Amino acid sequence: MFANLSDHRKGLLLTTFGGLVLSMDIPLIRLASGEVWSVLSVRSLATVVAALSALFVIRRVSGSVRGALPGWLGIPVGFFYGLTTICFLLAVYYTTAANVVFIIALNPMFTALLSWIFLKERPAVSTFITMAVMIIGVGLIVGDGMEGGHLLGDALSVLASLSSACAITISRASSRGMGFASLLAAALPAAVGLYHVVPVGFSIDHPGWILLDGGVLMPLSFWCLATGTRYLSAPEVAMFYLLETILAPIWVWLIFTEAPSNMTLAGGAILILALASHSLWQARVKARAAIVAQGVAH
């Protein structure tokens, strides 16, 4: 059934599922209730084990893992995904969940700019307008974070967003599936976490939650989102990371009753409205172009 879908629909299906699963990341990190480096190392180690297990199964079934591995470009992609994980998880501990996911909504903007610079895919005027509006929204959130003592966490969120955009752009340029690059990249944050944990020992109150997160949900999410670049443009893939932006604060509010500040909500609303308007406009433009193309063909 999946094989019969068009490439665009495959990409939409993969990235939608990946974004939905990703939205559970922050709630599970919070439920684990552990020290930051312990959570980082256990979550990342679980992802590496899941990736190696999947490769083992693929080798037993097909006799080779060469088709599943991303090649040399997987190294920079893996580095940026690993850096994203480190910055993201640290940000969760240094600012509110809403601030993290709303600021990471800058991902499509960074991806569009990088695609323009390195892939020569010039953004439309509407994209530039959307970027300007998004900067205003993020400015409100970061300004509120400075007053609330969350500046470090907000800065880490910006860095996580930029690093993720770098990984997506390189993945798109390679035209190869980077699913396992994103999974094996967890070795980097695992090493960083273990470096801090080994001298003092692990400290996680409920490790089952973080094992579920790192061993099951994150591998599924990372693989789907990284593989989506084979079928969709880099900015399109980045848009599906925004499912976490919309859903994660809702899960956190329902589970932990952590309500975002009014300024964070205002900035987040600006971001979501800007991106939603841009997506609808782009869909309308593509629909018009398709009609024109059909008319010319006839």
TrEMBL record:
Residues 10-142 form the EamA domain. The keyword Membrane applies. PANTHER family: ACYL-MALONYL CONDENSING ENZYME-RELATED, SOLUTE CARRIER FAMILY 35 MEMBER G2-RELATED. The chain crosses the membrane at residues 12-30, 36-58, 70-94, 100-119, 124-143, 149-170, 177-197, 209-226, 238-256, 262-281. The keyword Transmembrane applies. GO terms for cellular component: membrane. This is Drug/metabolite transporter (DMT)-like permease. Keywords: Membrane, Transmembrane, Transmembrane helix.
